[in-house]
Amino acid sequence: MHRVPLTRRTGVVSLLVAGALVPVAVAVAAFAHNGEDTATTAALPLHPVAGNFKPDDTRFEDCAEQTCYEQALGNVAYYEGPKAAMAVVDKTVAPEGDAQSCHRIVHAIGAASLARYKGNVARTFAEGSASCFSGYYHGVLERSLVGVRGYEPEALGRVARGLCDDTELRTVRWLGYQCLHGLGHGLMITSGYSLPLSLDVCNRLSAEWDRTSCKGGAFMENISTSYGVASRWVREDDPVYPCNWVDERDKVKCYEIVTSRILRVVGWDWDETAGICAAAEKGWVSACFRSFGRDAAGTTGLEPVKILELCAIARAHGGEASCITGAAVAMTGNFTSGEQASVLCDMAASEFRERCYFAVGSIMGGFKATPAERVADCRSLSAVERYLAQCIRGVSRNLPAFVDQ
Q1: pTM of structure
Q2: How many Å separate Cα 366 from the centre of its chain?
Q3: Which of 138, 175, 238, 277 has the fewest CB atoms within 10 Å, measured from its CB?
Q4: Rounded to an integer, what distance in angstroms lies between the CA atom of residue 70 and that of residue 75?
């Protein structure tokens, strides 16, 4: 039986896209919805909420505990701009490897930056970075719909369609993806954790790319709620649910995160998790093993040797290749670079390397605005022609996340 215990150093799996929960404040938050899935929460722990940041005179050099660091670096972002604050994070916080702490700090930076730019989401996104598992972007977007009144899908859809359409965001696909993913989180929060309603609204967005990206955020919030509540749309006796229940068009983003739920239910037993993936619905086994790889990356601190050890567990079920590509996607997104993931690809068995480079390219293609820049990024990773060719194929795709060839 293979188990990888969670520690503060390895972080929490969900940090790869959405932050783990560590209490910082207590607030009363009530969510109303005209349906049976009404959720009401009271006196719940929150991580930093975008739009609520208030600057003060707290200084980073005077801090010795978590909330002080959050406030101090929020102050840097508010007064000097998010780039200055993120530079401090990259130099002093991120290298420590404490994923929970780092993700929460950049949440606060995102909130402070939104206040600095007076609620301008596009400007705030454009000034940020994906350090510490994209917490900055989540701090900006996941609460963006809390103030919306009315829970009809069409009403929410009208607001949602305008939140991530700014030209500045769309010029770089990665920023557009982060915005849409955060929108999915926000829809779940504002609807009282109604997954069906949130998916309905995501499906009202104009393009398939937008719809898929949004649904990824909704499924993430369903598993790891920002308000610490237990969603109605998970089951202890069926760790794959709701992936095996939602419409076919909604399944891919659910299955690409499903092991974050499975692992918790089975006590972090990776062997059992691999078996559950192998028995997933026809057509979705590979997506489940990509999720397996994503979580392997998260629980090992993005260390290639340890990732490959966990992916080897999937070998008996034919899922090793998908596990490796899922891990490569996670690494590329976290670092907004393919450099670290290319190390993983080169260390993998030779039969997996081309798929791995394709996966790296599929994410890396969102980081730059022009095809020439994207190809140049691939050329910086490998001189092996067949790997380079696969990376270039990947950067040429116009997808919000990696999907198997």
Answers
A1: 0.75
A2: 15
A3: 238
A4: 9
